[in-house]
Design a protein that fits this description.
Length: 315
C-alpha cells in the first residue's frame, strides 16, 4: 500500500538496502561496508524527514493505510474481547466497534471507529465513518458500562460522521448531540485515544472523556484540512495551508489545553512498529485509569464537566 509522497525517498533507500542484501546472499560476497553506509544514510534521512514534519504531513501519516486500527489495538493489548452489536433501534454499524474486554486485570468496555484495509472491508466499515446507529450503539454500551461500573476505553479514528442522506434522515446530528450530553454524566472513568484521524463531530461524538490522549502523528480537529480549505479558500488544494491554521496536531492541542497527553510514536509513525505503539498506548491507559479510579463518582463527574466548560476560556 502506498504511503505519503514525502516517504518515497526513504522507501526507495530501504528497497535499495534490501536488494543489496539479497544480492549479497545470492552471490555470497562481502559488501557489509556498503550496506553500513546505506544504513547510516537511511538513519539520517529518517531523522531529517520525520523530525521535521509539517501539520499536513502528520495528517498524511494519520491516514497511512498500514497504521494500526481499533481492532489491532484490541488484539495487541487486550484479551477476552467480546463484541456487542446493534443500537436496538435500527441496525449494527460496522464502522463502530463496541465490546467487553480485559486490559491486564482490568475489566473494561471498549469502543472505537474501525476502518478497512482494502476496498471490500472499507465498504463494510464505511471507511470508519459511523452512522447514527453507531453513535447510539456506543452510548448504549457506555450506559451498560456504567451499570456494571466498568471503565470505558475509546479509540477515535474517523474523518467524520457519515454525511449521507440516510444518516441525516435517521438523526445523525441528534445522535451525536445526545452522546455529548449523556457522556458528561456517565459515572465511570472514560479515556479516549485519538489513534489516527479525529475529524469533526464524528470524533467528538465519542470524545467526551476524562482523559483525551492523541498519538504524536494523529490529528484532532473541528473539520478536515480539505473541508476547511474548500470553505475558506474555495480550493481543496490548499489543505496543507489549512492544516497549519487549524492547529490540529497533538503538540498544538496540548499547548492549548484541549487534550491531556501526547503519546510518542516510533520514528516514521505507528505503522513502523505496531507493537511499540501498542505498548505506549497501553501504558498511558493504565496510568490514567489508575488516577481516575482513585476519584469518587462525584469528583470524577465534576472534573469532567469543568474540563470541557473551561475549553476556549481565556483569563
Amino acid at each position: 500500500m502506498a504511503g505519503p509522497d514525502f516517504e518515497k525517498p526513504i522507501i526507495e533507500l530501504e528497497k535499495k538496502i534490501q536488494d543489496l542484501r539479497t544480492f549479497i546472499l545470492d552471490k555470497k560476497i562481502d559488501l557489509s561496508s556498503e550496506v553500513k553506509k546505506l544504513e547510516d544514510k537511511l538513519e539520517h534521512l529518517r531523522k531529517d524527514v520525520y523530525g521535521n514534519l509539517t501539520p499536513w504531513q502528520k495528517v498524511q501519516l494519520a491516514r497511512h493505510p498500514l497504521r494500526p486500527y481499533t481492532l489491532d489495538y484490541i488484539n495487541m493489548i487486550m484479551t477476552d474481547f467480546v463484541e456487542l452489536h446493534g443500537d436496538r433501534l435500527f441496525s449494527d454499524d460496522k464502522a463502530m466497534i463496541c465490546g467487553l474486554a480485559k486490559l491486564d486485570k482490568n475489566k473494561v468496555m471498549v469502543i472505537g471507529h474501525q476502518k478497512g484495509r482494502d476496498t471490500k472491508e472499507n465498504l463494510k466499515r464505511n471507511f470508519g465513518c459511523a452512522h447514527p446507529e453507531g453513535y447510539r450503539k456506543a452510548l448504549r454500551v457506555m450506559q451498560l458500562a456504567e451499570e456494571f461500573q466498568l471503565p470505558v476505553i475509546i479509540f477515535i479514528d474517523t474523518p467524520g460522521a457519515y454525511p449521507g442522506i440516510g444518516a441525516e434522515e435517521r438523526g445523525q446530528s441528534h445522535a451525536i448531540a445526545l452522546n455529548l450530553r449523556e457522556m458528561i454524566c456517565i459515572s465511570v472513568p472514560i479515556i479516549a485515544i485519538v489513534i489516527g484521524e479525529g475529524g469533526s463531530g464524528g470524533a467528538l461524538g465519542v470524545g467526551v472523556a476524562d482523559r483525551v490522549v492523541v498519538l504524536e502523528n494523529s490529528y484532532y480537529s473541528v473539520i478536515s484540512p480539505e473541508g476547511c480549505a474548500a470553505i475558506l479558500w474555495k480550493d481543496g488544494a490548499k489543505a496543507p495551508q489549512a492544516a497549519e491554521v487549524l492547529k490540529l496536531t497533538g503538540a498544538d492541542l496540548l499547548k492549548m489545553g484541549l487534550i491531556d497527553e501526547v503519546i510518542p510514536e516510533p520514528l516514521g509513525g505507528a505503522h513502523r512498529d505496531a507493537q511499540k505503539i501498542a505498548q505506549n498506548v497501553k501504558e498511558s491507559i493504565l496510568r490514567n485509569l489508575k488516577e481516575l479510579e482513585a476519584l469518587d463518582k462525584d469528583k470524577l463527574l465534576k472534573l469532567r464537566y469543568a474540563k470541557f466548560r473551561c475549553m476556549g476560556v481565556t483569563a
